[in-house]
Write a structure and sequence with these properties.
Layout: H1 8-26, H2 28-36, H3 39-46, H4 51-58, H5 62-74, E1 79-80, E2 87-88, H6 91-97, H7 108-118, H8 120-129, H9 140-165, H10 169-174, E3 178-182, H11 188-196, E4 201-206, H12 209-221, E5 228-232, E6 242-248, H13 257-266, E7 268-279, H14 291-309, H15 323-332, E8 336-343, E9 347-353
Parallel strand pairs: 3-4, 3-6, 4-5, 6-7
Antiparallel strand pairs: 1-2, 7-9, 8-9
Helix pairs in contact: 2-7, 3-4, 4-5, 7-9, 9-11
């Protein structure tokens, strides 16, 4: 069989892209080490400083510290002087890597990436069997990473941009409305809403008990534990009636999203609304073939699809389901006036009325 002729320039471009991707992948464990050992935080605090100084304040070996710093500098994740003898983080690098409350923090993405690597064997087996991997069996850093990865976006958008776009949501919450977050994880979004709307009644539900334990701790640390209630529950077993029911970046993870939406319908007040925050995506996969799509399809393959397929029905929408599928699910569950009310590069906000 005659081989097809290779275009040398196309080959070189592909090889270079692979080198870029390998370089990006190679730094994943270093980012986790830098985060867990507090190297980014100490560099932010003591920089500009020498390798010896950084090694001392972080209590790490000088040789490892040197190699780590050079890798960070090569990635433009760390700043340095012309003689490569002193190192520091720029204000932008501090915001992205070292300041936990920064609306620009992105270090949590490396928790998720590391967790996905840990889960390879389980997901590989699922590839062959067609079955799923329960969310509870994910590596622990997945749960921490998910919270840290989404927090900056929610911090910047939830109160200021997303809620005002929803029909009556702000008024409902200001007047003591009942809000429930289904799949609340560590409870970060519920904390933001509780802080912004003191009269609102806030409840969070999640299937993962350790996440609920973390949510309760965060609420206690924020002195909000008397205003937020958290329960271990899946999307079709919680109790109560609510004015607003939210699924923040989680409906596509569920095995039976239609059933979950229908259950939400039955637990809303007569004038209640369902709220979805979902990754931005087009309806046609070809329109998602870009950098954001690459990220979400990859996360989805390792997390969203295996989680969904481990549950009943196992619809496996994936993180790039697109608005048409999501709106159809809400309509199938009995909702009306389902529509996208806001969209940016990474998220879209959907509402539907009972």
């Amino acid at each position: 069989m005659q081989k097809e002729k290779i275009d040398i320039e196309s080959l070189k471009k592909l090889q270079w892209k692979i080198m870029q991707n390998v370089a990006a992948g190679a730094i994943i464990p270093l980012m986790r080490i830098g985060d867990e050992l507090g190297i980014f935080q100490k560099l932010a605090e003591f920089g500009p400083c020498t390798v010896q100084k950084l090694s001392k304040v972080t209590n790490i070996d000088v040789r490892y510290c040197t190699e780590w710093l050079h890798a960070m500098c090569a990635a433009n994740y760390c700043s340095y002087n012309t003689t490569l003898t002193k190192f520091h983080l720029s204000p932008e690098q501090k915001a992205v890597f070292a300041e936990e409350d920064s609306p620009a923090l992105m270090i949590g993405a490396y928790d998720v990436l590391s967790g996905n690597v840990h889960n390879i064997e389980k997901v590989k087996e699922a590839f062959q069997t067609g079955e799923g991997v329960p969310y509870s069996e994910s590596h622990p850093c997945i749960f921490q990473g998910t919270a840290r990865f989404f927090r900056p976006s929610y911090s910047s958008n939830l109160i200021q941009k997303w809620l005002p776009k929803l029909t009556g949501a702000t008024d409902i919450l200001e007047n003591g409305g009942r809000f429930a977050d289904i799949g609340c994880g560590f409870g970060l979004s519920t904390l933001m809403i509780a802080e912004a709307f003191p009269k609102a009644h806030i409840t969070g539900f999640d299937i993962h008990e350790p996440s609920i334990v973390s949510a309760k701790k965060h609420a206690m640390d924020a002195d909000l534990n008397d205003r937020i209630s958290y329960y271990v529950s899946d999307a079709k077993s919680y109790s109560g009636e609510f004015d607003l029911l939210a699924f923040f970046d989680c409906l596509h993870d569920m095995g039976d999203p239609i059933g979950a939406a229908n259950y939400a319908y039955e637990h809303l007040s007569n004038d209640g609304y369902i709220i979805l925050i979902e990754p931005t995506a087009a309806d046609h996969p070809a329109d998602n073939l870009n950098t954001i799509g690459q990220m979400y399809y990859s996360f989805s393959t390792m997390g969203c699809v295996p989680t969904s397929k481990s549950q009943e029905v196992g619809l496996a929408l994936g993180a790039q389901a697109g608005p048409k599928k999501l709106l159809n699910i809400l309509e199938a569950a009995g909702f009306k006036n389902a529509k996208v009310v806001y969209k940016n590069a990474t998220n879209m906000v959907i509402e539907a009325q009972k």
